[in-house]
Amino acid sequence: MRSLPVADPGAPDARSPFRYLCWVARNQAGPLLIGAGYATLWWLAMALVPMVMGRGIDAVRTKDTSALLTWGIVLLVLGAVQAAAGILRHRMAVYNWLAGAYRTVQVTVRQATRLGATLPRRMSTGEVVSVGNSDIAHIGNAMDILLRGSGSVVAIVAVTVILIGTSLPLGLTVLVGVPAMALAVTPLLRPLNRRQHAHRDLSGELSTRAADIVAGLRVLRGIGGEQVFADRYVTESQRVRRAGVKVASVESLLEGAQILLPGLLIAAVTWLGATFATRGEITIGQLVAFYGYAAFLITPLRTLIEAADKLTKGHVAARRVVRILSLEPEVDGGAATSPGGLLRDVASGVAVRPGTFTALAAATPEDAIAITDRLGRYRDGDVDFGDVPLDTLPIAEVRRRILVADNDAALFAGTLREELDVAGTASDDDLADALYAACATDIVDALPDGLDGHVAESGREFSGGQRQRLRLTRALLSDPEVLVLVEPTSAVDAHTEARIADRLAKARAGRTTLVCTTSPLVLDRTDHVIYVEGGVVRAQGTHRDLLATAPAYAAVVTRGES
């Protein structure tokens, strides 16, 4: 099977779930049409079998050997066509399922990358995870059912034409019965859509709860709160179960309708055919053909009801995707350029001098976080980079030139080398220097495979201090024009902290660096310290000068111990 296509570079239509599904279908229109063609050929080959068998039976009754041989060959050809078309139809069905599902993954990941820090503020983890867990399957099913659904419509039309040509009452029975059957299941679709939407939302909330519990399990055990959160999870899971039962109650009615309604129609066709045969209005072969059509029609009629179910589920799944695609980043950029220079946050007065190792000591951590978010362009703010407003630069350029590394940065699964050297351009000497500066050499030495050792999800095999040093190594290897570090030594012991402070100052000598910290060991090794209280700069100077001249600063960095 050929490889899946990359999503269309054009933006998907996110105005409604229906428009999104249409966008997905348009982007794979060729494979859908080919698959629908194979499905139509497959259905028609099956639809013609009862007619050919009826002709053959009539040939036996009239002892017409030539006609019997002819219809036998035709039946053989139909069987071969049905087998070949069925194989090709299934291949295209799998292709279209995968294309629809993973095109959704592509556009969702692309949108998540575009939103950046906006996404976790606007949507929960569970909602995003549910797209990849279940919604892509329903969207893929919606694309898949289009093939069999369109072919089944053609098959029903073909059978209706054959029946009308043989017996007008039988043909009209099918012609009227199929739309009536479709109308009979329509009242079930609206409550199904509503209940599936509620179930999806509750499932997303439950996934968020589970992610929070797993991420904070160590803390919960430390305070004895794991049972409380486990009880909450059980309560919410029961809400999801009840919502699932409500969905299943409607789906069970729909499943029952797939059996009952086609069965009633088939019974009517069979009864009429038998009646006409006893009257001599049709031949024995035609009666057998009518019975064959009655049995055959069950499958395309059930396919139509299945299509209604899967398209409804696809619509509900697309609603969540559209919710993500409709979000806009909280910050955007322009097309200006900047030669670099002084990085200044106007609101607070914090100015990071080029080529200096600067420290930001804030009375409250929230002040430091707010300032670094503005300096890194993760939130709107009046920030200048040189003589150019930061919000006029392209976001990609800001991310390339200004790196904000905090303790929320994730470690991903993979080899340690790939995790540290994200660009894949660092030499072994560069890696060794960065590991030395972050005092992380011992971490690599302890691994059996060294840098080629495997890192588990979130680096869970490492302690908090080890993860912090690995994050610092990764930031140093990126070697940005401006590096902003938020509490890079908060999880290490005092001895390691002092070594990191010494080595970090040497590793970033001559380059612009801002460290947000209140550790005296780090502050004493910086070129310039900025003290912030109440969101604005209150004092500046060297660490020792501020200890002597700024009592508030001294109280913060010495924890009230002079």
TrEMBL record:
<keyword id="KW-1133">Transmembrane helix</keyword>
<feature type="transmembrane region" description="Helical">
    <location>
        <begin position="284"/>
        <end position="305"/>
    </location>
</feature>
<dbReference type="Pfam" id="PF00664">
    <property type="entry name" value="ABC_membrane"/>
</dbReference>
<feature type="transmembrane region" description="Helical">
    <location>
        <begin position="259"/>
        <end position="278"/>
    </location>
</feature>
<feature type="transmembrane region" description="Helical">
    <location>
        <begin position="68"/>
        <end position="88"/>
    </location>
</feature>
<feature type="transmembrane region" description="Helical">
    <location>
        <begin position="170"/>
        <end position="189"/>
    </location>
</feature>
<dbReference type="Pfam" id="PF00005">
    <property type="entry name" value="ABC_tran"/>
</dbReference>
<feature type="transmembrane region" description="Helical">
    <location>
        <begin position="145"/>
        <end position="164"/>
    </location>
</feature>
<feature type="transmembrane region" description="Helical">
    <location>
        <begin position="29"/>
        <end position="48"/>
    </location>
</feature>
<dbReference type="InterPro" id="IPR027417">
    <property type="entry name" value="P-loop_NTPase"/>
</dbReference>
<feature type="domain" description="ABC transmembrane type-1">
    <location>
        <begin position="33"/>
        <end position="313"/>
    </location>
</feature>
<dbReference type="InterPro" id="IPR036640">
    <property type="entry name" value="ABC1_TM_sf"/>
</dbReference>
<dbReference type="InterPro" id="IPR039421">
    <property type="entry name" value="Type_1_exporter"/>
</dbReference>
<protein>
    <submittedName>
        <fullName>Multidrug ABC transporter permease</fullName>
    </submittedName>
</protein>
<keyword id="KW-0472">Membrane</keyword>
<feature type="domain" description="ABC transporter">
    <location>
        <begin position="322"/>
        <end position="559"/>
    </location>
</feature>
<dbReference type="InterPro" id="IPR011527">
    <property type="entry name" value="ABC1_TM_dom"/>
</dbReference>
<keyword id="KW-0812">Transmembrane</keyword>
<dbReference type="InterPro" id="IPR003439">
    <property type="entry name" value="ABC_transporter-like_ATP-bd"/>
</dbReference>
